[in-house]
Amino acid sequence: MATSNPAFSRNAAFGAPGALASTKVLSPTELQDLYNAPAAGAQDTDRMSYEDTIAKTTLSFALLLVAAAASWFLTPSMIFLPILGAIVGLVLGLVNTFKKEPSPALILAYAGAEGLFVGGISVIFEQLYPGVVVQAVLATLVVVGVTLALFANGKIRASKKATKVFMIAMVGYLVFSLVNFGLVAFGALDSPFGLRSAEFMGIPLGLIIGVLAVIMAAYSLVLDFDFIQRGVNNRAPRKFGWSGAFGIMVTVVWLYVELLRIFAIVRD
């Protein structure tokens, strides 16, 4: 299946089922010994598991939230914090994405940087549009929760065709975002939302693009869950649980920022 996250696709552990499977044939005695042995966890087997990946993801988000809380209180007097967080987060995000093996230290550093960015822009948006942060947080939790529930129940799955469409849409979205950022940065547009403030048939363009971006982020979550499932089924090394945590964190931050911007545009 075509993939969109190099952090997963560059590792055989997240490939087709059986990519890392052993071909050794066990004797009846060995099978009986395995059956009688106590259940082993991720620490005992040094293999990736859902529980271990959840623990790593929780730790990453905990650090992100701590950094976000600090940035929330410090940004009004230190306006450079969200900018610093965005720059450092971008650099670390690229490094973590293209590393063949995950680095817990770099992934946690990314979580801290993204926390500075998220907390900083959140307090700025909250000052301009009171209540918008609570709306964005609740909407993010709903999207993540619904997507996870549907995936766990087998209602939605990643497919080769859908992933190709997702990739094409992502390229278009990135091009639009870069053009829009350039126009705003160089003063070609007065609105802080740039082209997103323009209207199409009476509807803000930012609202239309934002909804499409949320749909793409939801599908990106499906890809993240699918890759983690493949890693567990292929008995990937335990360290790749950090890759799963990193992928989910990137997607959730993107989803939150898009929802925050959507509610701000609607309020505006």
From TrEMBL:
Superkingdom field: Bacteria
Keyword Hydrolase part of the UniProt annotation: no
Keywords assigned: Membrane, Transmembrane, Transmembrane helix
Pfam families on file: BaxI_1
Keyword rRNA-binding: no
Residue spans crossing the bilayer: 53-73, 79-98, 105-125, 131-153, 165-189, 201-223, 244-266
Protein name according to UniProt: Bax inhibitor-1/YccA family protein
Source species: Cryobacterium tagatosivorans
